[in-house]
Amino acid sequence: MSEVVLEARGIVRDYHVGGGLFGAGRTVHAVKGVDLKVEKGKTLAIVGESGCGKSTLARIITMIDAPTAGELFIDGEKVDIAARALSPEMRRKVQIVFQNPYGSLNPRQKIGDVLMEPLIINSDVPAAERRERAMTMLTKVGLQPEHFNRYPHMFSGGQRQRIAIARALMLNPRLLVLDEPVSALDLSVQAQVLNLLADLQDEFALTYVFISHDLSVVRYIADDVMVMYYGEAVEYGSRDAVFSDPQHSYTKTLFAATPRADVESIRKRLARKAA
Ligand SMILES: Nc1ncnc2c1ncn2[C@@H]1O[C@H](COP(=O)(O)OP(=O)(O)OP(=O)(O)O)[C@@H](O)[C@H]1O
Prior knowledge:
With about 280 residues, the protein is α/β, with parallel strands linked by helices. The chain has 11 helices and 10 strands.
């Protein structure tokens, strides 16, 4: 039987904005009741334009932010995100990789320390083993052991994203939330990082939630696709079903607005890289 790693039921997130001493302000309904389910080793891509609620949903899944309503289950266990003391074990299971590797790495921290930090904070793994695990992880993401003592500015954008992925994997998570992880990279580097993610998924049986606005990337990486529009999931199904027979008018418009040539060229490039 398949194992469900992530399930969300009726997730709602409202933000109260504006309103000072005398103003009432207003409520932004960022996520309006989203259900989703992702099985072990699979990738759910969440796609939609800026402001549709993708990042809000990503923060809720990562337990950084609490929903206004709804339930979240990780490995079948209900998560009480509002609780201050979420167990370290629960936190360990879900890690996030952000779009901008420049912003997410401390410029004064050597790469080895970047990788060992999650172990220092969340585990009692001894120093020698921390070092060894960081070295191993560097090679798993296609970097070299000698990169251990270098600083982030000495790396390219693609290499920095590899470092961010390595750090996210240091605690052996079950689920990686990838929030536009290749959007800031050149096309050829995007392909390399996507192939790396596919390899790591196979090796560690990882489950991915992949947030993107780029349909060509989604088509390559996803098993299932959710299309969000103004906080709602207007389309949700297998990649092939969503791409071959989109049901919602917004999805049709979104697909029509994506230049076909772009999709084809990146698919060919990815296929060449994969060969
Ligand atoms: N902390 C916040 N306070 C108030 N409103 C917010 C907050 N975070 C997000 N919003 C609003 O919620 C809506 C959804 O935002 P969100 O960032 O989740 O969308 P997104 O699809 O990820 O967009 P982008 O790709 O631009 O990040 C937007 O209208 C946004 O302005």
